[in-house]
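The aim of this short unit is practical: by the end, you should be able to scan a pair of folded records and say something sensible about each. We start with the first protein, listed as its amino acid sequence and then its structure tokens.
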Amino acid sequence: MSTSVKSASPPPSVEDPPGAVGRPAPRGGWRRALRRDWQLYSLAVLPLLFFLVFRYLPMIGNVIAFRRFEPGGSMFGEDWVGLRYVRMFLSDPTFWQVFRNTLWLGGLTLVFCFPIPIVLALLLNEVRRRSLKRFVQSVSYLPHFLSIVIVAGLTLQTLATDGPVNHALGWFGHEEIRFIQEPDWFRTIYVGSEIWQTAGWGTILYLAALTTIDEDLYEAARIDGANRWKQIWHVTLPGIRPTMITLLILNVGTFMAVGFEKVLLLYNPLTYPTADVISTYVYRAGVESNSFSYAAAIGLFEAVIGLVLITTANTLSRRTVGTSLW
């Protein structure tokens, strides 16, 4: 007489995580984690409050882009006007001029300021003398710790008509150049000062990413006959590619938000044709002219373009190289 043996699945291991076979997920797991690690979670309170107060709550004020706002009246505007202010700035030639200036400055900043920290990090990674490496790092990091006001002041004093640059040009018999008053020079001045201020600090992330690359990969490349350039191309750059893609997406997201403070400090009415950007135009329209609804409509338009850019860059990155922010 044969007896049938029922097959049963083995009991789950003690090391199985919650939700494994045969064990229901415990309820209130996040509460226990919060009680256990409340010191760590408390560190996120102030950053969350900062974003809530200065980033998310002000979004409610975007409603005045569709309502007529008068100083001293209702905080959310008096009358509903629909897309009136949107049509106003879309038909304003001055807006399209500052829009083109924003694209120019944002594009030049991305083209020059994004790859230079990568190149600098690769060069520093090849330096074998620790003293020289630390000296170059210290000198290149220093401008980051200077405020934008100091950087703008140094730039204006250096490039003034009686500044050291024009003095040096005079030694070679060249006539003085009005760098600050000439519109054609503003983009060069802005991008150059941005590179000087941010290039050294940007190398920190790439140098940290370089330390995660396995040395065995370099050894294998040397055995295969790869020289230093081929090792950089086939080992180093693929090793820091996730960091590069992440920072590129973040830079694309801020493409339209060209540095408001630096532009405001460096430009003047003579350089408006090339220096005036959306953020400074919004400042003059909203704060100086009290056209808050008009300025809010332009700012909302700029934010929508930034959202589209960062979403598109993230999608393309995920589909092409498999790295994305979300």
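Turning to the second protein, read its sequence before its tokens, just as you did above.
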Amino acid sequence: MKQITSIQNPFIKSLVLLQEKAKNRKQTGTFIIEGKREIEIAIKGGYELETVLFYPEICSEYEAKKLASNTELIEINKDVFQKLAYRDTTEGILAVAKTKSMQLTDLKFSENPLILVAEAPEKPGNIGALLRTADAANLDAVIIANPKSDLYNPNIVRSSVGCLFTNQIATGTTTEIITFLKERNINFYCATLQNSTSYHTQNYTTPTALVVGTEATGLTQEWRDAATQNIIIPMQGEIDSMNVSVAAAILIFEAKRQRGF
């Protein structure tokens, strides 16, 4: 079995760049997954692994082989592991995986889909939380409009706790996504302060997309003008907004409640 013990190894240097640079992830079509659970979920989600690296003091060769059979295994030492690991609790194993296409046309919906659309989310923690909420509600898809971050950013992979791999995800421009939803007769409800009605008064039992924007600027005018209905979560305190993932969760689970969970 191949062993790598130097952080100066060219392959290890290329993996460091995968962790740090969206450009390298895009050019190679690969990214890094850390942790046993995340790797298991990625495999279940149809992601193809190219290489698995394990640090035998934490993760045995047997565990690595059991987790990712038919994949190249490389044993690494502590220095290499610490150089590559993005977080402290990585369980001694990392995988190089192929990215997936995130085209709108790749999405497959049920007969009565429920979809989350997020316009231009920037913070990896918020994106990860949105993906976790979408997984919890078993949504048909998550669509990111005008993405500001590479979705294979290690912070997003980490904060989603594997839910990057459990959700159907697509990206596109606001215009493309509005056209996509209208062509499929999917109603979309936009969470915004302007010209809105209370979210709980609407019917989400038909094909529905719930659309949220950033906390700082909200949704663009294009969404607000095209919406089936603009909706608002009534605020009873001093501020007029809440964390985007919290707002999305409230809307999503109202729709799930109406659909009988």
